[in-house]
Amino acid sequence: MSEISVLSWTEKDVEEFLIREGFDQSVIIKLCDENKVNGKCLLSLNDQDFQLEPLKNLVLRDRKCLYVAVKTLQRENHNLLIELGLLELQSVNLYSHSIKQESEYCESERISPPASEDGRSQRLPPDIWKAFLSFCYVVFVTWITAFVMVIVHDRVPDMKKYPPLPDIFLDNVPHISWAFDMCEVTGTFLFTIWLIVLLFHKHRFILMRRFFALSGTVFLLRCVTMLITSLSVPGAHLQCEPRNYEMQETTYDHLIFKISQAYFIWRGAGMSIQGVRTCGDYMFSGHTVALTMLNFFITEYTPRHLYFVHTLTWIMNMFGIFFILAAHEHYSIDVFVAFYITSRLFLYYHTLSNNQALMQRDSTRTRIWFPLFSYFESGVDGIVPNEFESPAEIMSNLYSFLSMKLNVFKICEVQNNTNKQSDSTGAGSSELDRKTK
Hints:
single chain, mainly alpha, 0% strand, 2 domains
């Protein structure tokens, strides 16, 4: 039975419950007829009640069976116990593995914060300004990535002195010249699907915030790995050599030239179909990061019954990785590490956000190791449901938003005019008082 129906149980409903649990007529008469036990009373029974009359007068079998039945009923309705104030959640130690309760109702039971029956969040504020901050974060990181790509291009090892490293895949698969362009076309198609999901998803700003935060973090990590070690060029077909800075006379000119090259890479999103060609940025593959991130977000935030879409995104993800390797643009280790880091970070982030009890148990450590997560997900207390809006609802919400902003602007304008009139009236009164004096 549902939690609400337990509160509305009468003595007759409790009698039916006891009959289903296998109690005889003597127990029913004692509880329902003599003591008028209803649903709320039955749900609030505790250990002390079983030591007092009339429960202590029951035979041992009936008392034990009733105790088990009541505990089962309380377990099924623990959210209701919390709301009624019969169960209190206490704070826990940083490394404890269970939540201790100072309550006689569920002493050894771990109870998560009461979100909902299926774990879905009841607090889903859009926090548009957080989405904007995450967007600024990913823009800043992509700009750093573009500048680092210029630096590592100038540090690329000499192809004559450092030949391509042995690689199981590259050594056994012939080079396909058009494969890398096909990888980027696949990524563009996945990005289009993701834009459609964002457009119709009800909680689009939460999705945008998570996508920008995770993408920025992975690419920031990529900047570090690119700078630490410069791998040799993976294919002899690649014409990679440091740029010539002889025309730049001063260090300032060198810096301006590097910034212009970084802007060209950033504007073209690092894609060869946009005319961008880079070398040295091998560990790890940025194209694999983009494909995997888009695949995981589309799969996570679309309904489970859309098997065709999920299968399609996974196939495109795998084929995109194959195209990267077939083009001999990256080593196999570059692709493997990129897929592993991106998928693990996505799963860790969503595991913490979907299970807020884990974050609360290690809140201090979470803030230290995942500062962006602690800040961006502070307003969400559970799983974000996949709820979508129709085009009519989107236009209605947009119209309501614009109307609200317009009304606020009008109110502010009226208040400003009122203040100006009051100021002018006050100034006139002061001038009249001065003349009178």
